[in-house]
Amino acid sequence: FNTLHNGKLAISLNPRTPEGLKLVERLITKCDAVVENFSAEVFPNWGLTWERIHELNPKIVYMSSSGFGHTGEWKGYRSFGPTAAAQSGLSLASGLPGQPPAGWGYSYLDVMGGWMGGLALIQGLLKAKQTGKGMYIDYSVTEGAMSMIGTYMLDFQVNGRRTRRPDFPPGNRSVFPALAPHNTYRCAGHDRVGQYWWIFIACETQAQFEALCTLMGQPGLALDPKFATNEARVKHEDELDAIIEHWTRARRRYDIMQKCQAAGIIAAVVQSAEDRVEYDPQLHHREMFPIINHPELGDFPYEGYPVKMSRTPAFVHGRAPALAEHNAYVYGELLGMDAAEIAGLRERGVI
């Protein structure tokens, strides 16, 4: 909540009460957009259909973001990020060796769904500005995720290759073009919750592979007919990956990365959220996690803006709000209610 809501206003409101629903409708008349990610029946049950919203504000853009969209026989299914990832096929593309599919991070699509939905909303707002007419955007997170599995589907349809592999994390090998080695390998040690550490290593050229063999203390490996050329390495990829991981498991990930990079070999540690926030020197240089004081949390690292612009630099300009922090401003200044009216709403449990 804190990293995604900095700089926003927060109110409390119970739309299940008649007075609360009227306040929602009054707010709609003041807004450029309405975005919600309830299941499909919630807004209609409140009487807030697209027709009603458009009647209240003909210029408004209304976007519903749900797991399966607001039409079709699955419209009533509840969903969140992992559900959409599994239904779209993304979950099958990722996972640790010997474990069930893991998905792209636990709730990857909760974040990516917001990004994709945000782009759709911007398009709707631009169109509304051009035409003076609002629109309804029905966004399905599952369908958005399906746009990300095209290469997997193509590989299976053309080459008959499935995404899952039994011994190594899938999705890390290079298919177009075929390169080997090109994978993620387990390293020595683990984090505070017991998750193993990993490193990605790839060799795009023969010189890089020979340098890797030398670094591993096995220069003769590059002369082995099974590994002497990239084509041969691709054919014996499982065996080569096992050799490399036998070497990486005995070493610390950052030490491997530094030595590989010094030898001209492509290598990067697989970072956790803690790694990125606390230790990544590049992200600190780019001010990706500015520290802002919060009255309840103290100094808190917020997610910064990844795009740096020379003329209109974006920056994190405020902390996340506390619960109902802006009731007085929104109901008082935006809707024109006086202090007695706001106090009455609070006493009646509307806000």
Describe the structure.
- The protein has helices at 18-30, 42-45, 50-56, 81-88, 108-131, 141-146, 150-159, 206-215, 230-235, 237-248, 253-262, 273-279, 281-285, 327-334, 339-347, and strands spanning 33-36, 61-66, 135-140, 182-190, 196-202, 266-269, 291-294, 298-301.
- It is an alpha/beta fold.
- The chain has a domain at 172-270: formyl-coa transferase, domain 3 (2-Layer Sandwich).
- It has a three-stranded parallel β-sheet with strand order 1-2-3, sandwiched between helices. The protein has a three-stranded antiparallel β-sheet with strand order 4-5-6.
- Helix 4 packs across helix 5 (108-131).
- The protein starts with 17 loop residues before the first helix and ends with a helix.
- The model has no long low-confidence stretch (mean pLDDT 90).
